[in-house]
């Protein structure tokens, strides 16, 4: 359909990038990146019209996002070569334009395109050996300046290698080593570095991703004191286990898994260094709160939870309520003790959902005077219910009246 629109507008249309890569690998990918040889924004507008979709255009970059009513998202870009200089009808020129666009990209496996126009529909454009590298399982840059142009590509290289179980091309590896030696990453803003780090740590095998970063000496760009150690490895492994456990239980709940790994990474750093990291990277307040809570209160909470005799459910509840799931998993990963596992698990699955049967309205109906003591009474009722000291509503009424 988009192809037919492109034909009518007399432009060439291609689907490019990660989507083609994943298609050839047989992996699902719902992000569609389109490149137009011609006016990409005009094409996006016409497509949106036909589809009753919304468009957000960036005129300066010749790009647009088309938001289809069913939630599907298309990125449309203009092939970056002067279009009006050439008669677009000439296929050779069309090709050279998409070819140049693809040459600007990061890796051969991401520099493949599939043609969508009626003429040549479905044809794979592979100027740089992307299909061969997909077959040989290699992440390879297109040219020697790739990492200089964009140092975040170093992290992308590791991300794709870890995700697909690919290795890095030998030249590509050497270029990464060069980029590390030249300290190209100090030029990156905290924002961009954090974005890349998040994506890396969101990979299924985040631990392997960190290991690869360490192999290249990249951890020191998070903090100079951060390096690979058996302690770090154990912490990451524990984070992985805690997350695996959580995902088995809470399939319907979203968790920022990457943040649990960040907690594990920072665990091995001294206090001052953690403060540096919090300053350098623009974590949201909520994210910073998770890092601080796991770090500062972590030890005290773990100590309380592993006390003998073990704390009662209400005490566990009071210790853990208000902490995010990420913090809880951070605590779990930090201690690994059976008692902690059990307490956090009981809190997540049960305690946090418990409520007293009586409400404030009930207390009022009982003739009690509203005020700050209401909260105290309700807290007392909740504690009693958690500890199994009250069972019926009558029990609660008795307790409330006391
Ligand atoms: N790209 C690039 N250099 C970058 C970022 C992106 O060349 N620093 C190009 C690549 O061709 C990539 C495409 O832009 O395929 C889209 O980028 P992005 O959506 O970030 O990557 P995907 O390949 O789609 O990866 P993912 O599956 O992780 O979304």
From TrEMBL:
Keyword tRNA processing belongs to the record: yes
Keyword terms, alphabetized: CBS domain, Magnesium, Metal-binding, Nucleotide-binding, Nucleotidyltransferase, RNA-binding, Transferase, tRNA processing, tRNA-binding
Protein name listed in UniProt: CBS domain-containing protein
Gene Ontology molecular function: any one: nucleotidyltransferase activity
Record-stated family: Belongs to the tRNA nucleotidyltransferase/poly(A) polymerase family.
Coiled-coil stretches: none
Taxonomic lineage from the root: Bacteria, Pseudomonadati, Nitrospirota, Nitrospiria, Nitrospirales
Origin: domain of life: Bacteria
Full protein: residues contained: 473 to 874 of 885
């Amino acid at each position: 359909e988009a192809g037919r629109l492109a034909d009518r507008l007399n432009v060439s249309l291609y689907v490019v990038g990660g989507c083609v890569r994943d298609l050839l690998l047989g992996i699902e990918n719902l992000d569609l990146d389109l490149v137009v040889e011609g006016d990409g924004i005009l094409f996006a507008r016409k497509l949106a019209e036909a589809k009753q979709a919304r468009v957000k255009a960036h005129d300066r970059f010749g790009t647009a996002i088309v938001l289809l009513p069913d939630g599907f998202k298309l990125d449309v870009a203009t092939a970056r070569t002067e279009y009006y200089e050439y008669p677009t009808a000439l296929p050779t020129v069309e090709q050279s334009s998409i070819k140049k666009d693809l040459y600007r990209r990061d890796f051969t496996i991401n520099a493949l395109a599939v043609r969508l126009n009626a003429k040549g529909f479905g044809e794979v454009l592979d100027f740089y050996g992307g299909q061969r590298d997909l077959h040989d399982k290699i992440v390879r840059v297109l040219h020697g300046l790739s990492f200089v142009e964009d140092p975040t590509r170093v992290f992308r290289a590791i991300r794709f290698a870890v995700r697909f179980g690919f290795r890095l091309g030998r030249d590509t590896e050497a270029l990464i080593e060069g980029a590390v030696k030249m300290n190209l990453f100090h030029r990156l803003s905290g924002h961009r570095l954090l974005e890349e780090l998040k994506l890396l740590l969101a990979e299924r095998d985040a631990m392997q991703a960190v290991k690869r970063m360490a192999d290249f000496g990249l951890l020191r760009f998070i903090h100079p004191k951060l390096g690979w150690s058996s302690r770090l490895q154990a912490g990451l492994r524990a984070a992985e286990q805690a997350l695996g456990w959580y995902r088995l239980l809470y399939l319907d709940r979203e968790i920022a898994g990457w943040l649990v790994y960040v907690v594990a990474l920072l665990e091995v750093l001294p206090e001052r260094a953690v403060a540096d990291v919090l300053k350098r990277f623009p974590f949201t307040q909520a994210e910073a709160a998770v890092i601080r809570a796991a770090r500062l209160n972590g030890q005290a909470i773990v100590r309380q939870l592993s006390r003998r005799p073990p704390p009662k459910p209400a005490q566990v509840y009071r210790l853990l309520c208000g902490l995010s799931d990420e913090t809880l998993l951070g605590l779990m990963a930090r201690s690994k003790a059976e008692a902690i596992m059990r307490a956090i698990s009981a809190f997540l699955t049960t305690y946090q959902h418990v409520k007293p049967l009586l409400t404030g309205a009930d207390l009022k109906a009982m003739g009690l005077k509203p005020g700050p003591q209401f909260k105290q009474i309700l807290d007392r009722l909740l504690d009693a219910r958690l500890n199994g000291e009250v069972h019926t509503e009558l029990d609660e009424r008795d307790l409330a009246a006391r």
